[in-house]
Amino acid sequence: MAKSSSLIAIMGPTASGKSELGVALAKRFHGEVVSADSRQVYRGLDIGSGKITQKEMMGIPHHLLDVVSPKRTFTVVQYQRRAIKAIAAIRRRHKLPFLVGGSPFYIYSVVDGIAIPEVKPNQKLRRELEQLSVEKLLAKLKALDPARANTIEQKNKRRLVRALEIVITTGKPIPPLRKNASPLDVLMLGIRRSPEELKKRIQQRLNKRFKQGMVKEVERLHKQGVSWRRLEEFGLEYRYVAQFLQGRITKQEMIARIQKESEAFVRRQMVWFKKDPRIHWISTYAEAKRLVELNLQ
């Protein structure tokens, strides 16, 4: 039986193998998985987000997948509340919760209990901001909140709009995130891969996703009422497949841009993770298994 205060967080760059490791460890230690991925919370964003399939879950319960329509906004505050509830429920079942994903803000909202400003979505303001280019949104954020502009994912229009929404609504810069002491004994595991290996894995994964029908997935989402603009807001695969389907870029450009942006995304993820000395970097299942065993003693 797991220690009641334990949480195992598995993180790392995109395409590093987090989902597979999470399932393997959850099977070994009688656990359940809570996803920490900002795109996998949306229903229908399956192939492009790399959402784990029922077969790949191998019978391990997964939480915080497919919780909201892609037409709606899902904030970090909403994620934080649901994830904390899911973890508490897993612990009540005397099972070990595994927080698995590559969205740093989602992970730290749970691990550190980050207090996030609660600003309700302002649809009128959002529509106005969404008319602006990514470059103009970033310039606006730099003028209003230089500190946040330096840390935000600068090509992610959805995040830029949300940051500006908070700043404009409150009339002041986003305050430094406060951390609340977590009641959990958290073991943080990071998957270590070389840049060359990650580049190869991203390429292989991209080829697999195209074969699985990623372009048809984006077509289907658009036919179901998800606007091109909204699809592009999801970034990476969805942004460039949407642009390809609108005839704005060629197939070759689509593939090249997804690869390039995915590699850039890896670098941004690692900027977050490398700052945290609590993360134990591992390369194999055996290393991870040993650390979990020590944590549970």
UniProtKB/TrEMBL annotation:
Give me the residues that bind substrate, please.
14-19
Interaction with substrate tRNA, as annotated region? 37-40
Give, as one word, the top-level EC class.
transferase
Specify which residues bind ATP according to the UniProt entry for this protein: 12-19
Q: Which cofactor does it need?
A: Mg(2+)
Q: Does the keyword Zinc apply?
A: no
Task: Answer whether the UniProt record assigns the keyword Amino-acid biosynthesis to this protein.
Answer: no
Q: Which UniProt keywords apply?
A: ATP-binding, Magnesium, Nucleotide-binding, Transferase, tRNA processing
Q: Which reaction does it catalyse?
A: adenosine(37) in tRNA + dimethylallyl diphosphate = N(6)-dimethylallyladenosine(37) in tRNA + diphosphate
- Site (described: Interaction with substrate tRNA): 103, 126
Pfam families (alphabetical): IPPT (PF01715)
Q: What is its EC number?
A: 2.5.1.75
UniProt xrefs under InterPro entries: Dimethylallyltransferase, IPT, P-loop_NTPase
GO BP: any one term: tRNA modification
GO terms for molecular function, please?
ATP binding; tRNA dimethylallyltransferase activity
Q: How does it assemble?
A: Monomer.
Do you know which PANTHER family this protein is assigned to? TRNA DIMETHYLALLYLTRANSFERASE
Family from the record: Belongs to the IPP transferase family.
Free-text function comment from the UniProt entry = Catalyzes the transfer of a dimethylallyl group onto the adenine at position 37 in tRNAs that read codons beginning with uridine, leading to the formation of N6-(dimethylallyl)adenosine (i(6)A).
Q: What is this protein called?
A: tRNA dimethylallyltransferase
Task: Tell me the organism's taxonomic lineage.
Answer: Bacteria, Candidatus Nomuraibacteriota
